[in-house]
Amino acid sequence: MRCAHFRTALSARLDGEPTGVPDRRLDKHVARCTACREWLERAERLRGVVSAAGAAGPSADWSAALFTRLGEAGGVPGSGAAEDGGDGTGRSGQGGGRQGG
Ligand SMILES: [Zn+2]
Prior knowledge:
The chain is mainly alpha-helical. The chain is about 60% helix and about 0% strand.
């Protein structure tokens, strides 16, 4: 069997799914194969993180606290983009006098 096959089985075992491979055989390979052992350690860590996050989740308390904080922040940060009504059409043009002789 190939490493990929073992890893598929190991992954399934982490999920508690049927692996189709005897545990002893999996363990034996992991014990001998450094690559698969490292892979398994990473997979277990990932699995732990995922399951922990899934178990805890954003609880009602957490959500309530978040909304409370949002409320305390007070309204929407005002956008003080006032429009300036000035139009610059003031033209100061003076006709030059011609001096002719
Ligand atoms: Zn392997």
